[in-house]
Design a protein that fits this description.
2 copies of one chain form a homodimer. Chain A is α/β, with parallel strands linked by helices. Helices cover 46% and strands 22% of the residues of chain A. The radius of gyration of chain A is 19 Å and the shape is globular.
């Protein structure tokens, strides 16, 4: 099974790099870092050991890439409308596309535009990892990739998990992708937006009593949204997210990094889609709705 | 009837200045601006005409002031725990204390610590006015003072309104102080906090579609809180607040100015007290609760 990494940043660079290091055939799509990757390879500084993939199978366009069995899409959801055109050159009839992205209802939108024979799945990276320079990734903490089938592709996902394990990466095949997506939102919804709105890190939010209570209240609202959308997540799960964030190093979530680097934020995938899902079942999530509106204001006022 | 202005800032300086200009006996308590006031008087630059009260009856301490019939307290609510001690030297048995302050439940707290014979009332300033230098006020827009009795003092309030009219200031004696306080909150709750949280002016919030919708949603939540607390305010009142803010010049509300000048913000009076009032009737106001928590985080993180 050969791999394509569509978007070699903090996430794609780490998982693709680990697979390549373990001997798998991995083709990496780069954007602005292409020249650097060609010359110096893909550098990964990881808590579990630094390494460099050199030479790296680097490409500037999917048009130059071979067809691949397993395609990990590690782009921001903002670009998903370009996905069908971008993936066309590398699709086999039985390829599986795994959307390693944030938010809800990502797979449905992709499945609508990809050929019906192509498998569609979701992936959730539980990882603290940043791109710190061209083709240069720093992996700070954690690393589990949870994947779940949306349409077909279950054999390919099992192979992916097995290859990741062999590469030293924790991988989990979730029986229920929709549940896994909501569970990830229990963390993503409070921290991603609030670190932008309150100009803070996770650690600052956890240290101050009011922001800590606010984070927890918002987690509980995510649980209410999930419940309305058919996914029961016990309160203990929110408690566990609080605990594990307490143990994390001070961290800027992806949305905060997007804001800091003047890139568009994934408001639709992380906020608007979950709000719409809950609303379609007659449930309002007022605190999350405040965050969505504040973030949209910030996006339109400060970002291109 | 003689007047004391306790706190000669943007509000006290304007109303006291207008009363003094019309010939009333007005005693002004200054803090850091005392020397400037003694030397150069109280300067008011107003849309309805600039003037200077010079000499001005300026004091550094209430211990030096004569007893007064009508006492306008124009300090931040943050200092209200000092009120009983501060006012003791200037109280007559039948003085009336008007708390020209923001928020809810201000009068109850003051009435508990002031002598029972002293009238207690509330005042709400509908005015755009800033202190732009020592003993120097700029009045930008509007100017109505709405007052309402909390305990006794109704004759003094009538006299106050009549004196203000004679001085060219719109004044209104509200039949229901509690209702008037909630009505003022329909404006104060959304704009005061959101200009701080989103680092903006009223005009920026009104121009962008999402923040505009957010402001309106929060106004509707204030109406729900008022309703729970026994005050019916029709939706049309929120519409009217939106319209009048659209017509306002770009403005930084008092909380935003407090933040900009590193002064404590009136979170308790404007947010915590209304939230507690609604909660005492079993009603949650989740969007306003988010604002309260965000503001407390900001206060503790950035202010002394």
């Amino acid at each position: 099974m050969n791999y394509a990494i569509i978007g070699t940043g903090a996430i794609g660079g780490f998982y693709g790099g680990m697979l390549a290091k373990s001997g798998k055939e991995v083709h990496f799509l780069f954007h602005s870092d292409y020249e650097q990757a060609l010359g110096n390879g893909l550098q990964v500084d990881s808590v579990s050991g630094d390494f460099c993939i050199r030479p790296v199978k680097a490409y500037k366009s999917t048009a130059d890439m071979p067809p691949c069995d397993l395609i990990l899409v590690c782009l921001k959801t903002i670009n998903n409308r370009l996905l069908a055109d971008m993936l066309r050159p590398i699709l086999k009839p039985d390829s599986t596309v795994v959307l390693v992205q944030n938010g809800l209802d990502i797979e449905r939108q992709a499945a609508e535009v990809l050929p019906a024979s192509v498998g569609v799945a979701g992936g959730m990276a539980f990882i603290c990892s940043n791109k710190i320079g061209p083709a240069h990734i720093r992996h700070l903490d954690y690393g589990r990739l949870t994947v779940g089938a949306y349409r077909g592709g279950s054999q390919a996902l099992e192979q992916l998990c097995s290859d990741l394990h062999a590469a030293g990466v924790e991988a989990l095949l979730a029986p229920d992708l929709h549940e896994a997506r909501w569970k990830k939102l229990v963390w993503n919804i409070p921290y991603n937006g609030m670190t932008v709105i309150l100009d803070s890190t996770t650690e600052q939010l956890m240290r101050q009593a009011d922001s800590r209570a606010l984070i927890y209240d918002i987690m509980l609202e995510v649980l209410r949204g999930a419940e309305a959308d058919g996914v029961h997540i016990p309160t203990a799960f929110a408690d566990e997210m609080m605990r594990s964030t307490d143990q994390m190093r001070p961290y800027k979530p992806s949305m905060r990094l997007d804001f800091d680097h003047h890139r568009p934020m994934e408001i639709e995938a992380i906020y608007s889609n979950p709000l719409a899902a809950a609303r379609s079942h007659g449930v309002d999530l007022p605190k999350i709705a405040v965050m969505e509106q504040q973030l949209k204001y910030i996006q339109q006022t400060y970002l291109p």
